[in-house]
């Protein structure tokens, strides 16, 4: 990710005479750099947090719970 940010930043600097191309490339390079350094994606700030998943009303085993395959009812 960091290597891509370096190439994108270099592309942004090389195209400063075309701001319609340099500004988005610079913004993307900034986001990639923040993601590479911090270890998280800055676009996660824009994601809405959904409500918790509804409870299991059918009584079936879920992947979030350990499933015991060796037990017999």
Task: Give your account of this protein's structure.
Helix 1 runs antiparallel to helix 2. The chain is built from two helices and no strands. The chain has a domain at about 1-40. By secondary structure, the chain is mainly alpha-helical. The mean pLDDT is about 75. The longest helix has 20 residues, at about 20-40. It has helices at about 1-15, 20-40. The termini are far apart.
Helix-strand layout with pairing:
Blueprint: H1 2-14, H2 19-38
Strand content: under 5%
Run of helices and strands:
HH
**What is the helical fraction, as a range of percent?**
40-55%
Based on helices, strands and strand pairing, what is the structural class? Answer: mainly alpha
Please tally the β strands and state the result. Answer: 0
Please give the radius of gyration in angstroms. Answer: 23 Å
**So how many helices?**
2
The rough form would be described as: elongated
Give the integer mean of the pLDDT values: 77
Give the terminus-to-terminus CA distance: 50 Å
* Poorly predicted sequence stretches spanning 5 or more consecutive residues: none
State the major sheet.
none
What is the structure about, briefly put?
With 73 residues, this protein is mostly helical. The chain has 2 helices and no strands.
Features:
73 residues; mainly alpha; 2 helices; elongated
């Amino acid at each position: 990710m960091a290597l891509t940010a370096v190439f994108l930043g270099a592309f942004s600097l090389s195209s400063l005479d075309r701001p319609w191309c340099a500004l988005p490339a610079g913004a993307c390079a900034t986001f990639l750099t923040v993601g590479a350094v911090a270890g998280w994606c800055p676009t996660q700030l824009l994601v809405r947090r959904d409500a918790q998943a509804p409870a299991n009303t059918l009584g079936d085993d879920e992947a979030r719970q350990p499933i015991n395959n060796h037990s017999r009812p």
